[in-house]
Amino acid sequence: MSHALRKASRLDIPPRDKSKVASPRAVVGYNCSHKDQVKNAFSLGFERYETAMDKLSKV
Prior knowledge:
Layout: H1 34-48, H2 50-57
């Protein structure tokens, strides 16, 4: 017999507003290599989430 499961109330994801369109970020340049774009992506990520990565490294 299966048991009835309670609905998870701790994660509430509202419906997405489809009127907002996400625009892509600018690349390093039109004639740049994939390696340069990966470096740019990592630098953006480290810059944005530096404190979160510091906390995670201490776990």
